[in-house]
């Protein structure tokens, strides 16, 4: 990866919660160099639709955008997203299209219609003790990249699990609606090949960024301004200078934007050992998972 390939680095802490606007969404960006990352629209409570509009209309040229969500579901373990369902999509892009089509009538890029779909629901663990017959038990099904995260010391969650404070299933599914609507406008690595120029979206796991900033996987969440600046310093970044309590959505976005700036030009991260052409097309990958 040539230095200077990207000129800006953005991180989006995402949310799949019900409703229109969410405290759980934070967007931070930084430029090349050492200047501190900054929140986009600080104090604003984002909607998912507004983030989509920002990506389409306001994203600076040459930006690497990390979104904290799973860009696909497990496929390699059973050679299908939804084994036994005739309409099971053949790849990630078809999955995004299916989710968006099933949820077309839902506002705020929500995904309730998909997780309650008579065929798809059999594969999810949902609230109220409703575990589909095809969920698989235990912690659920994992993508190859999530197994790589696990080997790094992280504790990933299956995107088929929709229960619990740490679950990422609903945020991932709602994010896939966004990715579908970006089709042809903004490439999503590695489902799309990395182009030689221009902006690109990738999947991030903020714990990986926090670990690079000197935190442990179990203490990845930063909720204090001084600790935030210490983490940024480990990444070669100037301090943000926030005083006192900081919500972890804000700190996740700020630290991860700075981390992307430090690692985006590492060729090894764009060609991890487990990333085959088939995995790229079906499951995708988490940038930074090795």
Low-confidence stretches: none
Helices and strands, in order, run as EEEEEHEHHEEHHEHHHH
Strand content: 5-15%
Helix content: 25-40%
| Major sheet details | 5 strands, mixed
Class per helix and strand makeup: alpha/beta
The global form is globular
pLDDT averaged residue by residue: 95
Number of domains: 2
Number of E-type strands: 9
N→C terminal distance = 17 Å
Give Rg in angstroms: 18 Å
Number of helices: 9
User: Widest sheet: strand order?
Assistant: 4-3-1-6-9
Short description:
This protein is of the alpha/beta class and 290 residues long. The protein is 29% helix and 11% strand.
Features:
290 residues; alpha/beta; 5-stranded mixed sheet; 9 helices; 29% helix; globular
Description:
The chain is α/β, with parallel strands linked by helices and 290 residues long. The protein folds into two domains: 8-71 and 182-270; 92-181, no CATH class. Helices cover 29% and strands 11% of the residues. The chain has nine helices and nine strands. It has helices spanning 48-57, 92-102, 112-115, 144-151, 169-181, 206-212, 225-234, 248-263, 277-282, and strands spanning 8-13, 21-22, 26-31, 38-39, 46-47, 63-68, 125-126, 130-131, 200-203. Strands 4-3-1-6-9 form a five-stranded mixed β-sheet. Strands 2-5 form a two-stranded antiparallel sheet. β7 (125-126) and β8 (130-131) form a beta hairpin. It starts with 7 loop residues before the first strand and ends in an 8-residue tail after the last helix. The mean pLDDT is 95.
């Amino acid at each position: 990866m040539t230095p200077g390939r990207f000129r800006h680095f953005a991180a989006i802490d995402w949310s799949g919660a019900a409703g229109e606007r969410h405290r759980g969404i934070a967007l931070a960006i930084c430029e090349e160099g050492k200047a501190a990352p900054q929140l986009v629209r600080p104090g604003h409570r984002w909607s998912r639709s507004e983030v989509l509009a920002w990506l389409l209309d306001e994203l600076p040229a040459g930006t690497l955008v990390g979104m904290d969500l799973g860009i696909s579901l497990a496929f390699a373990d059973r050679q299908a997203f939804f084994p036994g369902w005739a309409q099971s999509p053949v790849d990630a892009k078809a999955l995004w299209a299916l989710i968006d089509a099933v949820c077309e009538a839902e506002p705020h890029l929500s995904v309730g219609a998909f997780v309650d779909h008579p065929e798809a629901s059999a594969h999810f663990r949902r609230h109220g003790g409703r575990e589909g017959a095809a969920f698989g038990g235990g912690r659920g099904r994992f993508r190859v990249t999530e197994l790589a995260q696990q080997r790094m010391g992280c504790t990933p969650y299956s995107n088929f699990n929709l229960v619990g404070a740490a679950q990422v299933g609903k945020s991932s599914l709602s994010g896939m609606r966004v990715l579908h609507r970006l089709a042809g406008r903004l490439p999503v690595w590695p489902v799309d090949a990395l182009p030689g120029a221009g902006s690109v979206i990738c999947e991030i796991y903020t714990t990986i960024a926090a670990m690079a900033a000197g935190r442990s996987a179990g203490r990845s969440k930063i909720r204090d301004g001084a600790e935030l600046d210490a983490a940024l310093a480990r990444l070669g970044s100037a301090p943000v200078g926030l005083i006192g309590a900081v919500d972890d959505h804000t700190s996740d976005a700020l630290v991860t934007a700075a981390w992307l700036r430090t690692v985006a030009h590492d060729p090894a991260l764009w060609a991890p050992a487990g990333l085959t052409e088939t995995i790229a097309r079906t499951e995708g990958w988490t940038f930074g998972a090795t």
